[in-house]
Amino acid sequence: xxxxxANALREVVSLDGIWxxxxxxxxxxxxxxxxxxxxxxxxQAPVPASYNDIFTEREIQKHVGWVFYQxxxxxxxxxxxxxxxxxxxxxxxxxxxxxxxxxxxxHHGGYMPFEADITSxxxxxxxxxxxxxxxxxxxxxxxxxGEIEVAADGTxxxxxxxxxxxxxxxxxxxxxxxxxKNHITxxxxxxxVINSGKTGTVEYQxxxxxxxxxxxxxxxxxxxxAGSTVAEAMGAQGTLTVDSVQLWQPGxxxxxxxxxxxxxxxxxxxxxxxxxxxGIRTVKVVGRQIHINEKPFYFTGFxxxxxxxxxxxxxxxxxxxxxxxxxxxxxANSFRTSHYPYDEAWLxxxxxxxxxxxxxxxAVGMNLAIMAGWHGKAxxxxxxxxxxxxxxxxxxxxxxxxxxxxxxxxxxxxxxxIANEPSSHEETSRQYFEPLTVLARELDPTRPIGYANEKQAxxxxxxxxxxxxxxxxNRYYGWYIFTGDLSGAEKGLEAELREWEAMYGKPxxxxxxxADTLAGLHTVGDVPWTEDYQMTHRVFDRxxxxxxxxxxxxxxxxxxxxxxxxxxxxKKGVFTRDRKPKAAARTLRKRWLDLQNRLDRTSR
Length: 604
Ligand code: BDP
Prior knowledge:
Elements: E1 11-14, E2 17-23, E3 44-47, H1 58-61, E4 66-74, E5 82-88, E6 91-92, E7 94-99, E8 102-108, E9 114-117, E10 127-135, E11 146-150, E12 156-160, E13 169-170, E14 174-180, E15 184-194, E16 199-208, H2 210-215, E17 216-223, E18 229-234, E19 237-242, E20 256-264, E21 272-278, E22 283-286, E23 289-292, E24 295-296, E25 299-303, H3 317-330, E26 334-336, H4 344-353, E27 356-360, H5 369-375, H6 390-407, E28 413-420, H7 429-443, E29 449-453, E30 471-474, H8 486-504, E31 508-512, H9 538-542, E32 546-552, H10 583-603
Helix pairs in contact: 3-4, 6-7
Bound molecules: beta-D-glucopyranuronic acid.
Protein backbone atom coordinates (compact mmCIF):
# COMPACT_ATOMS: atom_id res chain seq x y z
CA UNK A 1 0.00 0.00 0.00
CA UNK A 2 1.39 3.39 -0.93
CA UNK A 3 0.44 4.91 2.40
CA UNK A 4 -1.66 4.17 5.46
CA UNK A 5 -3.92 7.17 5.94
CA ALA A 6 -6.39 7.63 8.76
CA ASN A 7 -10.07 7.41 7.80
CA ALA A 8 -13.39 6.32 9.29
CA LEU A 9 -12.05 2.79 9.76
CA ARG A 10 -8.36 3.33 10.31
CA GLU A 11 -6.44 5.34 12.88
CA VAL A 12 -2.93 6.71 12.72
CA VAL A 13 -0.76 8.05 15.53
CA SER A 14 2.37 9.96 14.62
CA LEU A 15 5.48 8.91 16.52
CA ASP A 16 7.45 11.92 15.28
CA GLY A 17 9.21 14.10 17.81
CA ILE A 18 12.20 13.70 20.08
CA TRP A 19 13.64 10.20 20.46
CA UNK A 20 16.50 9.00 22.63
CA UNK A 21 19.53 8.46 20.44
CA UNK A 22 22.86 6.64 20.59
CA UNK A 23 25.68 5.58 18.31
CA UNK A 24 26.25 1.83 18.33
CA UNK A 25 29.44 0.88 20.11
CA UNK A 26 30.46 -1.57 17.40
CA UNK A 27 29.98 -2.06 13.64
CA UNK A 28 28.56 -5.46 14.53
CA UNK A 29 25.01 -4.89 15.70
CA UNK A 30 24.88 -7.91 17.97
CA UNK A 31 27.87 -6.66 20.01
CA UNK A 32 25.65 -3.85 21.31
CA UNK A 33 21.97 -4.91 21.49
CA UNK A 34 20.74 -1.49 22.64
CA UNK A 35 17.10 -2.49 22.07
CA UNK A 36 17.27 -4.72 25.14
CA UNK A 37 17.82 -1.72 27.43
CA UNK A 38 16.42 1.75 27.93
CA UNK A 39 18.68 4.32 26.31
CA UNK A 40 19.55 7.33 28.48
CA UNK A 41 17.95 10.60 27.44
CA UNK A 42 21.27 12.46 27.53
CA UNK A 43 21.43 12.40 23.74
CA GLN A 44 18.18 12.97 21.87
CA ALA A 45 17.45 13.36 18.17
CA PRO A 46 14.47 14.72 16.26
CA VAL A 47 12.40 12.52 13.95
CA PRO A 48 12.15 13.10 11.04
CA ALA A 49 15.64 14.51 10.36
CA SER A 50 19.13 13.43 9.46
CA TYR A 51 21.14 13.17 12.65
CA ASN A 52 24.42 14.37 11.08
CA ASP A 53 24.09 18.16 11.39
CA ILE A 54 22.02 18.21 14.58
CA PHE A 55 24.91 17.71 16.99
CA THR A 56 28.18 19.54 17.37
CA GLU A 57 30.31 16.39 17.54
CA ARG A 58 32.14 15.52 14.32
CA GLU A 59 32.09 11.94 15.56
CA ILE A 60 28.32 11.89 15.06
CA GLN A 61 28.36 13.79 11.79
CA LYS A 62 30.84 11.38 10.25
CA HIS A 63 29.62 8.22 11.98
CA VAL A 64 29.72 5.08 9.83
CA GLY A 65 27.57 2.20 11.01
CA TRP A 66 24.56 1.69 13.26
CA VAL A 67 22.74 4.22 15.41
CA PHE A 68 19.73 3.67 17.67
CA TYR A 69 16.56 5.70 17.98
CA GLN A 70 14.32 4.81 20.91
CA UNK A 71 11.07 5.97 22.50
CA UNK A 72 8.22 4.48 24.46
CA UNK A 73 4.81 3.99 22.89
CA UNK A 74 1.44 3.12 24.38
CA UNK A 75 -1.04 1.13 22.36
CA UNK A 76 -4.58 2.56 22.72
CA UNK A 77 -7.12 0.20 24.31
CA UNK A 78 -9.60 1.07 21.60
CA UNK A 79 -7.42 -0.64 19.00
CA UNK A 80 -8.20 -4.15 20.22
CA UNK A 81 -9.73 -6.36 17.49
CA UNK A 82 -7.65 -4.57 14.86
CA UNK A 83 -4.20 -4.96 13.36
CA UNK A 84 -1.45 -2.73 14.69
CA UNK A 85 1.14 -1.73 12.15
CA UNK A 86 4.39 0.20 12.63
CA UNK A 87 5.25 2.22 9.55
CA UNK A 88 8.68 3.78 9.03
CA UNK A 89 8.75 6.40 6.23
CA UNK A 90 12.47 5.99 5.55
CA UNK A 91 15.50 4.69 7.46
CA UNK A 92 18.60 5.62 5.49
CA UNK A 93 20.01 3.21 4.32
CA UNK A 94 18.94 0.20 6.36
CA UNK A 95 16.55 -0.10 9.28
CA UNK A 96 15.72 -2.75 11.90
CA UNK A 97 12.74 -2.35 14.17
CA UNK A 98 12.49 -3.84 17.68
CA UNK A 99 9.46 -3.91 19.94
CA UNK A 100 10.87 -4.37 23.43
CA UNK A 101 13.43 -7.17 22.95
CA UNK A 102 11.73 -8.59 19.86
CA UNK A 103 13.02 -7.96 16.34
CA UNK A 104 10.09 -7.27 13.99
CA UNK A 105 11.30 -6.13 10.58
CA UNK A 106 14.37 -5.22 8.56
CA HIS A 107 14.47 -3.06 5.45
CA HIS A 108 17.25 -2.30 2.99
CA GLY A 109 17.17 0.91 0.95
CA GLY A 110 17.15 4.39 2.41
CA TYR A 111 14.28 6.07 0.59
CA MET A 112 11.27 3.80 0.87
CA PRO A 113 8.67 3.16 3.57
CA PHE A 114 8.35 -0.20 5.28
CA GLU A 115 6.03 -1.65 7.87
CA ALA A 116 5.52 -4.49 10.31
CA ASP A 117 2.46 -6.04 11.89
CA ILE A 118 3.05 -6.03 15.65
CA THR A 119 -0.45 -7.11 16.71
CA SER A 120 0.63 -10.40 18.21
CA UNK A 121 3.51 -8.84 20.17
CA UNK A 122 1.77 -6.05 22.09
CA UNK A 123 -1.49 -6.01 24.01
CA UNK A 124 -3.86 -3.02 23.78
CA UNK A 125 -3.16 -0.63 26.64
CA UNK A 126 0.45 -1.83 26.97
CA UNK A 127 3.41 0.55 26.89
CA UNK A 128 6.42 -0.73 24.98
CA UNK A 129 9.97 0.27 24.09
CA UNK A 130 10.30 0.95 20.37
CA UNK A 131 13.86 0.91 19.03
CA UNK A 132 14.85 1.51 15.44
CA UNK A 133 18.43 0.68 14.53
CA UNK A 134 19.57 2.57 11.43
CA UNK A 135 22.67 1.79 9.40
CA UNK A 136 24.23 4.17 6.87
CA UNK A 137 26.87 1.91 5.32
CA UNK A 138 27.15 1.75 1.56
CA UNK A 139 29.02 -1.10 -0.11
CA UNK A 140 29.30 -2.52 -3.59
CA UNK A 141 26.11 -4.46 -2.89
CA UNK A 142 23.91 -1.54 -1.86
CA UNK A 143 21.98 0.92 -4.03
CA UNK A 144 23.55 3.45 -4.14
CA UNK A 145 26.95 1.77 -3.91
CA GLY A 146 29.91 2.89 -1.80
CA GLU A 147 32.97 1.48 -0.05
CA ILE A 148 34.16 1.54 3.53
CA GLU A 149 37.83 2.20 4.23
CA VAL A 150 39.21 1.01 7.53
CA ALA A 151 42.32 2.87 8.76
CA ALA A 152 45.13 1.21 10.70
CA ASP A 153 43.64 2.49 13.97
CA GLY A 154 40.29 0.92 13.09
CA THR A 155 38.56 4.20 12.12
CA UNK A 156 35.99 3.59 9.42
CA UNK A 157 35.38 6.01 6.59
CA UNK A 158 32.51 5.86 4.14
CA UNK A 159 33.52 6.47 0.52
CA UNK A 160 30.53 7.50 -1.56
CA UNK A 161 30.53 7.67 -5.33
CA UNK A 162 27.88 10.34 -5.55
CA UNK A 163 28.01 14.09 -5.15
CA UNK A 164 25.80 14.59 -2.09
CA UNK A 165 26.33 14.14 1.63
CA UNK A 166 25.52 10.70 2.99
CA UNK A 167 22.79 12.01 5.28
CA UNK A 168 21.56 9.30 7.61
CA UNK A 169 18.80 8.56 10.07
CA UNK A 170 15.02 8.46 10.22
CA UNK A 171 14.26 10.86 7.38
CA UNK A 172 10.50 10.50 7.22
CA UNK A 173 7.64 10.06 9.66
CA UNK A 174 7.23 7.03 11.87
CA UNK A 175 3.61 6.04 12.49
CA UNK A 176 1.58 3.60 14.49
CA UNK A 177 -1.46 2.54 12.49
CA UNK A 178 -4.63 0.71 13.38
CA UNK A 179 -6.02 -1.20 10.40
CA UNK A 180 -9.07 -3.49 10.29
CA LYS A 181 -8.09 -7.19 10.24
CA ASN A 182 -10.19 -7.57 7.16
CA HIS A 183 -8.61 -4.97 4.91
CA ILE A 184 -7.65 -3.57 1.54
CA THR A 185 -3.95 -4.19 0.89
CA UNK A 186 -3.45 -2.45 -2.46
CA UNK A 187 -5.23 -0.45 -5.13
CA UNK A 188 -3.89 0.10 -8.63
CA UNK A 189 -5.38 2.48 -11.17
CA UNK A 190 -4.47 2.99 -14.81
CA UNK A 191 -6.16 5.76 -16.75
CA UNK A 192 -6.76 6.32 -20.44
CA VAL A 193 -8.66 8.74 -22.60
CA ILE A 194 -10.83 7.69 -25.54
CA ASN A 195 -13.46 9.16 -27.81
CA SER A 196 -11.28 12.12 -28.95
CA GLY A 197 -10.54 13.18 -25.41
CA LYS A 198 -14.16 13.23 -24.26
CA THR A 199 -14.26 10.01 -22.25
CA GLY A 200 -11.87 8.90 -19.55
CA THR A 201 -11.34 5.32 -18.46
CA VAL A 202 -10.09 4.16 -15.08
CA GLU A 203 -9.00 0.57 -14.90
CA TYR A 204 -8.74 -0.47 -11.27
CA GLN A 205 -7.59 -3.47 -9.32
CA UNK A 206 -8.08 -3.91 -5.58
CA UNK A 207 -6.21 -6.45 -3.50
CA UNK A 208 -7.42 -7.47 -0.09
CA UNK A 209 -6.29 -9.79 2.70
CA UNK A 210 -6.89 -13.50 2.22
CA UNK A 211 -9.73 -13.43 4.70
CA UNK A 212 -11.33 -10.56 2.89
CA UNK A 213 -11.00 -12.13 -0.53
CA UNK A 214 -13.10 -15.17 0.28
CA UNK A 215 -15.97 -13.47 2.15
CA UNK A 216 -16.25 -9.95 0.96
CA UNK A 217 -17.46 -7.68 -1.72
CA UNK A 218 -15.57 -4.68 -3.01
CA UNK A 219 -17.44 -1.54 -4.02
CA UNK A 220 -15.74 1.32 -5.82
CA UNK A 221 -16.96 4.80 -6.59
CA UNK A 222 -15.19 7.45 -8.62
CA UNK A 223 -15.95 10.85 -7.14
CA UNK A 224 -15.25 14.21 -8.79
CA UNK A 225 -13.95 17.39 -7.14
CA ALA A 226 -17.49 18.59 -6.43
CA GLY A 227 -18.16 15.38 -4.48
CA SER A 228 -20.44 13.77 -7.08
CA THR A 229 -20.05 10.12 -7.92
CA VAL A 230 -19.37 9.86 -11.65
CA ALA A 231 -18.99 6.07 -11.91
CA GLU A 232 -19.51 3.07 -9.64
CA ALA A 233 -18.85 -0.65 -9.75
CA MET A 234 -18.79 -3.84 -7.70
CA GLY A 235 -15.87 -6.23 -7.76
CA ALA A 236 -12.16 -6.20 -7.10
CA GLN A 237 -11.31 -5.21 -10.63
CA GLY A 238 -12.90 -3.50 -13.57
CA THR A 239 -12.95 -0.43 -15.76
CA LEU A 240 -14.91 2.71 -15.04
CA THR A 241 -15.78 5.21 -17.75
CA VAL A 242 -16.19 8.93 -17.26
CA ASP A 243 -18.08 10.97 -19.82
CA SER A 244 -17.15 14.63 -20.31
CA VAL A 245 -13.94 13.84 -18.47
CA GLN A 246 -11.90 16.56 -16.80
CA LEU A 247 -8.29 15.72 -17.55
CA TRP A 248 -5.34 16.02 -15.21
CA GLN A 249 -3.25 18.59 -17.04
CA PRO A 250 0.22 19.93 -16.25
CA GLY A 251 -0.39 23.23 -14.48
CA UNK A 252 -4.13 22.53 -14.24
CA UNK A 253 -4.62 19.43 -12.19
CA UNK A 254 -8.05 17.88 -11.82
CA UNK A 255 -8.31 15.03 -9.34
CA UNK A 256 -11.09 12.52 -9.00
CA UNK A 257 -10.79 10.05 -6.17
CA UNK A 258 -11.53 6.37 -6.14
CA UNK A 259 -13.35 5.45 -2.97
CA UNK A 260 -12.84 1.75 -2.36
CA UNK A 261 -14.93 -0.01 0.28
CA UNK A 262 -14.91 -3.56 1.51
CA UNK A 263 -18.18 -5.13 2.72
CA UNK A 264 -18.39 -8.40 4.61
CA UNK A 265 -21.15 -10.39 2.84
CA UNK A 266 -24.70 -9.43 3.80
CA UNK A 267 -23.51 -6.71 6.18
CA UNK A 268 -24.25 -3.17 5.02
CA UNK A 269 -21.41 -1.63 7.07
CA UNK A 270 -17.99 -1.29 5.43
CA UNK A 271 -15.18 -3.28 7.05
CA UNK A 272 -12.48 -1.15 5.45
CA UNK A 273 -12.13 1.77 3.08
CA UNK A 274 -9.37 3.47 1.15
CA UNK A 275 -9.22 6.52 -1.11
CA UNK A 276 -6.84 7.02 -4.02
CA UNK A 277 -6.52 10.26 -5.95
CA UNK A 278 -7.00 9.66 -9.65
CA GLY A 279 -5.77 12.05 -12.32
CA ILE A 280 -7.01 10.97 -15.71
CA ARG A 281 -4.31 11.58 -18.29
CA THR A 282 -2.16 9.81 -20.85
CA VAL A 283 1.60 9.84 -21.42
CA LYS A 284 3.18 8.61 -24.65
CA VAL A 285 6.41 8.90 -26.55
CA VAL A 286 5.44 9.82 -30.10
CA GLY A 287 8.43 10.01 -32.42
CA ARG A 288 10.75 12.66 -31.00
CA GLN A 289 8.17 14.09 -28.62
CA ILE A 290 6.66 13.23 -25.25
CA HIS A 291 2.92 13.70 -25.27
CA ILE A 292 0.80 14.33 -22.21
CA ASN A 293 -2.86 14.06 -23.17
CA GLU A 294 -1.92 13.79 -26.84
CA LYS A 295 -0.10 17.15 -26.80
CA PRO A 296 3.70 17.64 -26.92
CA PHE A 297 5.00 18.55 -23.48
CA TYR A 298 8.16 20.63 -22.90
CA PHE A 299 9.76 20.14 -19.46
CA THR A 300 11.08 23.21 -17.66
CA GLY A 301 12.49 22.89 -14.16
CA PHE A 302 15.24 21.32 -12.13
CA UNK A 303 16.96 18.31 -10.74
CA UNK A 304 16.46 18.67 -6.99
CA UNK A 305 17.57 17.17 -3.71
CA UNK A 306 15.87 16.59 -0.40
CA UNK A 307 18.47 18.73 1.35
CA UNK A 308 18.11 21.48 3.92
CA UNK A 309 20.24 23.24 6.52
CA UNK A 310 20.30 21.46 9.90
CA UNK A 311 17.70 18.81 9.09
CA UNK A 312 19.64 17.33 6.14
CA UNK A 313 17.33 14.96 4.30
CA UNK A 314 14.60 15.03 6.93
CA UNK A 315 11.22 15.69 5.33
CA UNK A 316 9.83 19.10 6.16
CA UNK A 317 6.39 20.20 4.93
CA UNK A 318 7.25 23.92 5.19
CA UNK A 319 10.36 23.59 3.04
CA UNK A 320 8.47 21.40 0.60
CA UNK A 321 5.61 23.82 0.06
CA UNK A 322 8.05 26.72 -0.17
CA UNK A 323 10.08 24.86 -2.81
CA UNK A 324 6.89 24.30 -4.78
CA UNK A 325 6.07 28.00 -4.52
CA UNK A 326 9.53 28.86 -5.85
CA UNK A 327 9.13 26.37 -8.70
CA UNK A 328 5.88 28.08 -9.63
CA UNK A 329 7.41 31.53 -9.37
CA UNK A 330 10.17 30.37 -11.71
CA UNK A 331 7.70 29.14 -14.32
CA ALA A 332 9.00 25.58 -13.80
CA ASN A 333 6.46 22.91 -14.73
CA SER A 334 8.41 19.85 -13.59
CA PHE A 335 11.35 18.38 -11.66
CA ARG A 336 13.33 15.17 -11.31
CA THR A 337 13.56 13.40 -7.95
CA SER A 338 17.34 13.19 -8.31
CA HIS A 339 18.88 10.93 -7.04
CA TYR A 340 16.38 8.81 -5.08
CA PRO A 341 12.63 8.66 -4.46
CA TYR A 342 11.34 11.54 -2.31
CA ASP A 343 8.85 11.51 0.54
CA GLU A 344 5.40 10.61 -0.85
CA ALA A 345 4.16 14.05 0.24
CA TRP A 346 6.10 15.48 -2.73
CA LEU A 347 4.03 13.41 -5.14
CA UNK A 348 0.71 14.08 -3.43
CA UNK A 349 1.39 17.80 -3.71
CA UNK A 350 2.48 17.52 -7.37
CA UNK A 351 -0.70 15.56 -8.16
CA UNK A 352 -2.82 18.26 -6.53
CA UNK A 353 -1.02 21.17 -8.23
CA UNK A 354 -0.29 19.76 -11.68
CA UNK A 355 3.50 19.57 -11.39
CA UNK A 356 5.11 16.95 -13.65
CA UNK A 357 7.60 14.58 -11.98
CA UNK A 358 10.37 12.42 -13.37
CA UNK A 359 10.82 9.77 -10.69
CA UNK A 360 14.28 8.29 -10.10
CA UNK A 361 15.56 5.19 -8.28
CA UNK A 362 18.43 5.56 -5.76
CA ALA A 363 20.92 4.10 -8.28
CA VAL A 364 23.52 6.85 -8.40
CA GLY A 365 27.32 6.60 -8.44
CA MET A 366 27.60 3.44 -10.55
CA ASN A 367 30.46 4.87 -12.50
CA LEU A 368 34.11 4.22 -11.79
CA ALA A 369 35.05 6.03 -14.99
CA ILE A 370 34.00 9.48 -13.78
CA MET A 371 36.88 10.55 -11.56
CA ALA A 372 39.23 8.20 -13.41
CA GLY A 373 38.30 9.93 -16.67
CA TRP A 374 38.94 13.25 -15.00
CA HIS A 375 42.47 12.25 -13.98
CA GLY A 376 43.11 10.19 -17.13
CA LYS A 377 43.67 7.08 -14.98
CA ALA A 378 42.77 3.46 -15.62
CA UNK A 379 39.92 2.13 -13.48
CA UNK A 380 38.31 -1.13 -12.46
CA UNK A 381 35.22 -2.13 -14.47
CA UNK A 382 32.06 -0.70 -12.88
CA UNK A 383 29.98 -3.79 -13.55
CA UNK A 384 31.81 -6.92 -12.44
CA UNK A 385 31.67 -9.52 -9.65
CA UNK A 386 33.86 -7.22 -7.49
CA UNK A 387 32.00 -3.98 -8.13
CA UNK A 388 28.34 -3.57 -9.22
CA UNK A 389 27.57 -7.27 -9.36
CA UNK A 390 24.55 -9.53 -9.78
CA UNK A 391 23.82 -8.96 -6.09
CA UNK A 392 23.81 -5.20 -6.65
CA UNK A 393 21.50 -5.68 -9.61
CA UNK A 394 19.10 -7.76 -7.51
CA UNK A 395 19.02 -4.97 -4.94
CA UNK A 396 18.55 -2.44 -7.73
CA UNK A 397 15.61 -4.51 -9.03
CA UNK A 398 14.16 -4.52 -5.54
CA UNK A 399 14.49 -0.72 -5.34
CA UNK A 400 12.77 -0.38 -8.72
CA UNK A 401 9.94 -2.69 -7.67
CA UNK A 402 9.40 -0.74 -4.47
CA UNK A 403 9.42 2.59 -6.30
CA UNK A 404 6.89 1.55 -8.93
CA UNK A 405 4.74 -0.19 -6.33
CA UNK A 406 4.65 2.93 -4.15
CA UNK A 407 4.22 5.57 -6.87
CA UNK A 408 2.31 3.81 -9.64
CA UNK A 409 -0.96 5.69 -9.09
CA UNK A 410 0.44 9.22 -9.14
CA UNK A 411 -0.65 11.11 -12.26
CA UNK A 412 2.25 13.55 -11.74
CA UNK A 413 4.79 10.79 -12.45
CA UNK A 414 5.32 10.62 -16.21
CA UNK A 415 8.58 8.71 -16.43
CA UNK A 416 10.87 6.39 -14.43
CA UNK A 417 14.60 7.06 -14.41
CA ILE A 418 16.40 3.83 -13.63
CA ALA A 419 19.83 5.23 -12.78
CA ASN A 420 21.83 8.43 -12.71
CA GLU A 421 25.02 8.53 -14.76
CA PRO A 422 25.93 4.86 -14.78
CA SER A 423 29.04 3.94 -16.72
CA SER A 424 27.00 3.12 -19.81
CA HIS A 425 29.96 3.16 -22.18
CA GLU A 426 31.40 0.07 -20.48
CA GLU A 427 30.62 -3.14 -22.34
CA THR A 428 29.15 -4.96 -19.32
CA SER A 429 26.67 -2.17 -18.54
CA ARG A 430 24.25 -3.77 -21.00
CA GLN A 431 24.18 -7.06 -19.14
CA TYR A 432 23.50 -5.13 -15.96
CA PHE A 433 20.76 -2.83 -17.30
CA GLU A 434 18.84 -4.98 -19.75
CA PRO A 435 17.02 -7.00 -17.05
CA LEU A 436 16.18 -3.78 -15.22
CA THR A 437 14.54 -2.27 -18.29
CA VAL A 438 12.55 -5.48 -18.88
CA LEU A 439 11.39 -5.41 -15.26
CA ALA A 440 10.39 -1.72 -15.40
CA ARG A 441 8.25 -2.34 -18.48
CA GLU A 442 6.68 -5.40 -16.93
CA LEU A 443 5.84 -3.51 -13.73
CA ASP A 444 4.53 -0.46 -15.56
CA PRO A 445 3.84 -0.66 -19.28
CA THR A 446 2.21 2.79 -19.19
CA ARG A 447 5.17 5.10 -18.60
CA PRO A 448 8.35 5.71 -20.61
CA ILE A 449 11.71 4.90 -19.07
CA GLY A 450 15.07 6.62 -19.21
CA TYR A 451 18.40 6.88 -17.43
CA ALA A 452 20.52 9.99 -16.97
CA ASN A 453 23.49 9.67 -19.30
CA GLU A 454 27.00 10.92 -18.47
CA LYS A 455 29.30 12.58 -21.01
CA GLN A 456 31.78 9.72 -21.40
CA ALA A 457 28.99 7.62 -22.89
CA UNK A 458 28.48 9.84 -25.93
CA UNK A 459 26.18 8.83 -28.78
CA UNK A 460 28.80 6.54 -30.30
CA UNK A 461 30.08 5.05 -27.05
CA UNK A 462 26.84 4.37 -25.17
CA UNK A 463 25.84 0.70 -24.95
CA UNK A 464 22.32 0.84 -23.54
CA UNK A 465 20.34 3.78 -24.89
CA UNK A 466 18.31 1.61 -27.31
CA UNK A 467 16.74 -0.08 -24.24
CA UNK A 468 15.13 3.21 -23.19
CA UNK A 469 12.42 5.49 -24.60
CA UNK A 470 13.87 8.91 -23.84
CA UNK A 471 17.46 10.19 -24.00
CA UNK A 472 18.22 11.99 -20.74
CA UNK A 473 21.48 13.91 -20.89
CA ASN A 474 23.50 15.38 -18.03
CA ARG A 475 25.94 17.79 -19.68
CA TYR A 476 28.24 20.46 -18.29
CA TYR A 477 29.42 22.34 -21.38
CA GLY A 478 30.94 25.56 -20.11
CA TRP A 479 31.73 24.06 -16.71
CA TYR A 480 33.56 20.72 -16.61
CA ILE A 481 34.32 20.99 -20.32
CA PHE A 482 34.87 24.26 -22.24
CA THR A 483 35.34 25.79 -18.79
CA GLY A 484 34.94 29.55 -19.03
CA ASP A 485 34.42 29.35 -22.81
CA LEU A 486 30.75 29.92 -23.46
CA SER A 487 31.01 30.13 -27.21
CA GLY A 488 33.01 26.88 -27.42
CA ALA A 489 30.44 25.34 -25.07
CA GLU A 490 27.59 26.38 -27.32
CA LYS A 491 29.21 24.81 -30.38
CA GLY A 492 30.20 21.63 -28.52
CA LEU A 493 26.73 21.12 -27.07
CA GLU A 494 25.03 21.70 -30.39
CA ALA A 495 27.31 19.25 -32.20
CA GLU A 496 26.67 16.57 -29.58
CA LEU A 497 22.90 17.05 -29.50
CA ARG A 498 22.71 16.88 -33.28
CA GLU A 499 24.58 13.60 -33.17
CA TRP A 500 22.16 12.07 -30.65
CA GLU A 501 19.25 13.32 -32.71
CA ALA A 502 20.58 11.89 -35.96
CA MET A 503 21.57 8.53 -34.49
CA TYR A 504 18.52 7.69 -32.37
CA GLY A 505 15.51 9.82 -33.30
CA LYS A 506 14.19 9.79 -29.71
CA PRO A 507 13.10 12.68 -27.49
CA UNK A 508 15.96 14.29 -25.57
CA UNK A 509 15.63 15.86 -22.11
CA UNK A 510 18.53 17.83 -20.71
CA UNK A 511 18.25 16.31 -17.25
CA UNK A 512 21.26 18.29 -15.98
CA UNK A 513 23.21 21.35 -17.05
CA UNK A 514 24.53 24.30 -15.09
CA ALA A 515 27.47 25.89 -13.31
CA ASP A 516 28.54 26.48 -9.72
CA THR A 517 27.84 30.04 -8.60
CA LEU A 518 28.96 31.62 -5.39
CA ALA A 519 26.09 33.89 -4.35
CA GLY A 520 27.27 37.51 -4.21
CA LEU A 521 30.33 37.06 -6.44
CA HIS A 522 30.21 39.38 -9.47
CA THR A 523 32.62 40.44 -12.14
CA VAL A 524 32.67 42.08 -15.54
CA GLY A 525 32.70 39.38 -18.21
CA ASP A 526 32.11 35.67 -18.17
CA VAL A 527 34.04 34.32 -15.20
CA PRO A 528 33.14 30.91 -13.75
CA TRP A 529 31.81 30.91 -10.16
CA THR A 530 30.37 34.42 -10.51
CA GLU A 531 26.66 35.15 -10.78
CA ASP A 532 27.32 36.73 -14.17
CA TYR A 533 28.60 33.52 -15.75
CA GLN A 534 25.44 32.20 -17.38
CA MET A 535 24.72 29.90 -20.26
CA THR A 536 22.28 30.57 -23.05
CA HIS A 537 19.46 28.30 -24.13
CA ARG A 538 19.78 29.00 -27.84
CA VAL A 539 20.97 25.49 -28.62
CA PHE A 540 17.92 23.81 -27.08
CA ASP A 541 15.66 26.03 -29.14
CA ARG A 542 17.41 25.02 -32.36
CA UNK A 543 17.02 21.27 -31.86
CA UNK A 544 13.58 19.81 -32.36
CA UNK A 545 14.24 16.62 -30.36
CA UNK A 546 15.02 18.55 -27.17
CA UNK A 547 11.79 18.29 -25.18
CA UNK A 548 12.94 19.54 -21.83
CA UNK A 549 15.49 21.41 -19.74
CA UNK A 550 16.17 20.68 -16.09
CA UNK A 551 18.85 22.89 -14.60
CA UNK A 552 21.20 21.32 -12.09
CA UNK A 553 20.25 22.19 -9.35
CA UNK A 554 17.23 23.88 -7.81
CA UNK A 555 19.23 24.84 -4.70
CA UNK A 556 22.77 24.51 -3.35
CA UNK A 557 23.19 21.28 -1.41
CA UNK A 558 25.62 19.60 0.94
CA UNK A 559 28.27 17.21 -0.42
CA UNK A 560 30.85 15.02 1.32
CA UNK A 561 32.87 17.46 3.39
CA UNK A 562 36.22 15.96 2.34
CA UNK A 563 35.52 16.43 -1.39
CA UNK A 564 38.07 19.05 -2.30
CA UNK A 565 36.20 20.25 -5.42
CA UNK A 566 33.37 21.58 -3.25
CA UNK A 567 33.34 24.32 -0.62
CA UNK A 568 30.55 23.67 1.87
CA UNK A 569 28.60 21.85 -0.81
CA UNK A 570 27.66 21.97 -4.45
CA LYS A 571 26.88 25.54 -5.52
CA LYS A 572 25.05 24.85 -8.77
CA GLY A 573 21.77 25.86 -7.17
CA VAL A 574 19.73 28.57 -8.83
CA PHE A 575 18.70 29.21 -5.22
CA THR A 576 21.06 29.20 -2.27
CA ARG A 577 20.65 26.43 0.28
CA ASP A 578 18.36 28.73 2.28
CA ARG A 579 16.32 29.40 -0.86
CA LYS A 580 17.44 32.90 -1.89
CA PRO A 581 17.49 33.44 -5.68
CA LYS A 582 20.84 33.94 -7.43
CA ALA A 583 21.08 36.15 -10.53
CA ALA A 584 20.40 33.23 -12.90
CA ALA A 585 16.94 32.83 -11.37
CA ARG A 586 15.65 36.00 -13.09
CA THR A 587 17.00 35.03 -16.51
CA LEU A 588 15.58 31.51 -16.27
CA ARG A 589 12.31 32.76 -14.90
CA LYS A 590 11.85 35.08 -17.87
CA ARG A 591 12.63 32.27 -20.31
CA TRP A 592 10.29 29.77 -18.68
CA LEU A 593 7.41 32.18 -18.27
CA ASP A 594 7.77 33.24 -21.94
CA LEU A 595 7.83 29.58 -22.98
CA GLN A 596 4.75 28.91 -20.88
CA ASN A 597 2.87 31.80 -22.51
CA ARG A 598 3.88 30.64 -25.96
CA LEU A 599 2.76 27.07 -25.26
CA ASP A 600 -0.50 28.24 -23.69
CA ARG A 601 -1.22 30.24 -26.82
CA THR A 602 -0.50 27.34 -29.20
CA SER A 603 -2.58 24.86 -27.22
CA ARG A 604 -5.59 27.16 -27.17
C1 BDP B 1 26.43 15.13 -12.17
C2 BDP B 1 25.65 14.39 -11.11
C3 BDP B 1 25.20 15.29 -9.97
C4 BDP B 1 26.31 16.22 -9.57
C5 BDP B 1 26.66 17.10 -10.77
C6 BDP B 1 27.78 18.12 -10.47
O1 BDP B 1 24.54 13.73 -11.66
O2 BDP B 1 24.77 14.49 -8.89
O3 BDP B 1 26.02 16.97 -8.44
O4 BDP B 1 27.10 16.27 -11.81
O5 BDP B 1 28.92 17.79 -10.71
O6 BDP B 1 27.46 14.32 -12.55
O7 BDP B 1 27.47 19.19 -9.99
